[in-house]
Inverse folding.
C-alpha cells in the first residue's frame, strides 16, 4: 500500500462514502489523496444541480478544467463514451475514474512539454524543428532521422519551421496512447 493515499468508495446517488487504509483494489476504487477526493466531491456537488448524485455530460469539460486538468473536447467525448450512462450523465464514481485516467494521460505530456521548454531556452513556447531534430538524433536515446520524420509526421507537423511545444507534446502522447 502506498502511504498517504486512500481508497475511496462511493455508493451513488446517496453519497454514502467510506475512506479506508486498505490495499485491495476494486473496480469502484481509485487511489487518490484525501485532498483530491475532497476537491473532486466539492466541485461535483456544485454541478449536481438537481442533487441526484449525477452531473450532466455537457458539464464534464468544465468540471475537469475546474479540477486542474486540461482535456480537449475529443478527450472529453472519449471519457463520456466510456463512463456516462444512457442519458449521458456521470455519477461521482465515474468522475473519479475519468480524473484518474486523465491524470495518467497528462503526466507524460507534462514531462515532454517541460523537456521541450528547457531545450528551447527562451520559453516562448515554440522551438525550431531543426533544434528538436538535433536533440533527438544527438542526445540520450538517439533516434534516426527517419524516426524523427515519422514522429513529426505522426504529430501532424512539417519537417521545417517552428514547432509549437504544447501541441507537439499533446500530439505525441495522443499518438502513443493509440499504439
Amino acid at each position: 500500500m502506498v502511504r498517504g493515499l486512500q481508497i475511496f468508495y462511493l455508493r451513488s446517488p446517496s453519497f454514502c462514502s467510506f475512506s479506508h487504509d486498505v490495499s485491495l483494489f476494486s473496480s469502484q476504487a481509485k487511489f487518490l489523496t484525501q485532498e483530491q477526493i475532497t476537491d473532486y466531491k466539492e466541485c461535483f456537488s456544485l454541478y449536481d444541480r438537481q442533487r441526484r448524485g449525477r452531473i450532466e455530460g455537457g458539464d464534464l469539460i468544465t468540471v475537469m478544467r475546474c479540477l486542474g486538468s486540461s482535456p480537449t473536447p475529443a478527450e472529453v467525448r472519449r471519457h463520456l463514451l466510456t463512463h456516462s450512462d444512457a442519458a449521458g450523465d456521470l455519477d461521482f464514481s465515474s468522475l473519479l475514474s475519468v480524473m484518474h485516467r486523465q491524470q495518467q494521460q497528462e503526466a507524460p505530456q507534462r514531462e515532454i512539454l517541460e523537456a521541450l521548454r528547457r531545450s528551447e531556452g527562451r520559453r516562448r513556447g515554440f522551438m525550431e524543428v531543426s533544434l528538436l531534430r538535433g536533440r533527438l538524433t544527438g542526445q540520450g536515446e538517439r533516434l534516426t532521422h527517419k524516426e524523427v520524420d515519422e514522429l513529426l509526421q505522426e504529430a501532424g507537423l512539417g519537417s521545417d519551421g517552428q514547432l509549437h511545444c504544447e501541441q507537439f507534446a499533446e500530439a505525441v502522447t495522443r499518438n502513443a496512447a493509440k499504439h
Notes: Confidence is low (pLDDT under 50) at residues 1-30. Strands lie at 6-11, 16-20, 31-32, 54-56, 89-91, 126-128, 162-164.
